[in-house]
Amino acid sequence: MKRISDISILLAAALTLACAKIETGADQGTPAGDNSVSVDAGAGDMESGDVSDAYPYFGDTLVVDMAGSSLPAGAVVSDDGRNVVLSHLPADFVLAVSGDEELELQQPDNHLLSAEPVAGEINRFRIRKGLYAPNVPAETAVLEFRRKGLSNVYPEDAITLELSANPVVVRGEMNFDTDGNVYDFGRYVDNELGVFVIPEGKGLSVEFSSGEDPWVKLVQSESGAWRVLGGWRPNDPGADGRSQAATIVVSNSDGTDREEYTVVRRNYGLPVTWMHGVWWCKYNAMGNSMDFDDQILVPEDPAAVAGQTLFEYLTSCSPEEYAALWGWAYQGDSGQGMRVVESDGMAVMDGFSMNVPAHINKLPAGALAPDGYELPSMEEFNRIFDATDYIWMMWNGTHTLKTPWEGSDKVQREQRRKNGIAVGSLTLDDLIYIRMWSPSSPEHEPIVWYGPGAQWNTTDGIRHANHYNNILFGVYSPEGSGWYMAGGMSNLYMHKNGAGTRDTRILRFKKSDVEYIY
Which of 56, 303, 372, 498 has the fewest CB atoms within 10 Å, measured from its CB? Predict the structure, then answer.
């Protein structure tokens, strides 16, 4: 190895030696009175720019001083003392280096490593190493030393650390190759978050900070791998969009060799009620239907805050409060809600377009919904609307389903009207809202249907048959079928109708299926 930048040391040493010989007469081959000195540094023709093969010779090679070191469990030092193999686990240890000169350790170029000299001691260094994340290949880190008094660091003055790969394998989106081994989804997620495959003899557990809900569950599959399930809590008062964390721990059976991996999500939740196997959202979608921040979240549920059911709240609330919930509808695949406004003396949907290529009902179920929610399918709407005869919506009563759900074939209903809803200079009356519930599960709050009538052209707005209650429902139906409330005020009824692409619809989501409810 060539040490060109420190050739001056060699030249100085040679000059010193020559002078000493002159003073002592040690070199008898030098003619008396001849004080000239010839130094051959082996540097070649320096003027020609040749590279010298000469370098300072220190007489020692840097190796691990085993007696002075305190290495972590499982560390392996090579026979020549120049290489140390470390496990994937975090470590905090002292590395001593044998050598005649005092050494200065350079800060390692690796985000998992830090180093500093041990105070008051020579050539002993404290090394800290972080946990090596799953799925990251093994790598080599070099600890470089500069001999005191030299200006440069030479490649041979180094100890190599081999950083072993983590035997834990993580499948799925979670990636823990970050500072602190934290993976933040940055959004609401549930169901399978990922899979851990751990070595034989290791165990897996999950921990939560004080006061946090047990929103993560570990389930071992037949293959021995561990599925990490994110859960959901109906009407969770803490589902306000806050960050929610859980720590997944890999360790030996006695708790040693502990590895911590933290997973974080945003905890959002929409108010829901249960009917015939479906967790139905209580409120219609509003604003950007895909954005939780535009929806009514569980802690903000105005009916629950007032200690009422939604049906009771719509009866007691002001016309302004009713209008804020009522006046939203959607077209196409944008997910951007339209409000009821006045135009040319008519109530219309603001932004209505005659050119809408996408049919809402034919979109994927979750296309317009926030994460974890979706439009109910035609079959799920049928569990409420598909009666053996017409459902006459202007009357209270009970209807019988064509296909019972878990032995229940009765649905009870009650309708009321809201008056005095101001839209521009217009005042809208007789806006219908209807609650429906199953006699077999009276403990659950009824579903309440409300919303503006559909708009399908620019001449009529949302008023049809002299009222505003011809509501078209958004339904997940790849074939394009759907449900529509048709007729006049004296013969208002539900019937199957998929309608066209430009027809505006209300969107009432359901909670997507979830494996774990906590």
Answer: 56
User: Which is it for strands 83-86 and 158-163: parallel, antiparallel or unpaired?
Assistant: parallel
DSSP lists the bridge partners of residue 485 as 494
Give the ranges where 249-377 is alpha helix by DSSP (H): 302-305, 310-316, 319-326
Q: Is the pLDDT of residue 446 over 80?
A: yes
Beta-bridge partner residues of 230: 191, 216
Contacts 24+ apart (CB under 8 A), 296-300: 296/270, 296/271, 297/239, 297/240, 297/241, 297/268, 297/269, 297/270, 297/271, 298/235, 298/236, 298/237, 298/239, 298/240, 298/269, 298/270, 298/271, 299/237, 299/238, 299/239, 299/240, 300/240
Contact (Cβ atoms closer than 8 angstroms) between residue 309 and residue 446: yes
* Sign of the CA dihedral with 460 first, then 462, 468, and 470 last: positive
Whole-angstrom Cα distance, residue 61 to residue 80?
Answer: 10
How does the average pLDDT of the chain come out, rounded? 91
| E strand segments, 253-317 | 259-268, 272-275, 278-281
> What strands lie across the sheet with 447-449, from one edge to the other?
397-405, 408-418, 431-437, 447-449
Domain 63-163 shares a fold with domain 169-268:
yes
Burial of 361 (0-12, 13-18, 19+ CB in 10 A): buried
DSSP per-residue string spanning 15-55:
HHHHHHHHHHT--TTSPTT--------S---GGGTPPP---
pLDDT digits (tens, 9 = 90+) for 236-280: 999 999 999 999 999 999 999 999 999 999 999 999 999 999 999
CATH class of the region 169-268: mainly beta
Q: Report domain extents, the chain.
A: 4-48, 63-163, 169-268, 272-511
The number of beta carbons lying within 10 Å of the beta carbon of residue 138 is: 12
Share of the chain above pLDDT 90, in %: 86
pTM of this prediction? 0.85
CATH topology of domain 63-163: Immunoglobulin-like (2.60.40)
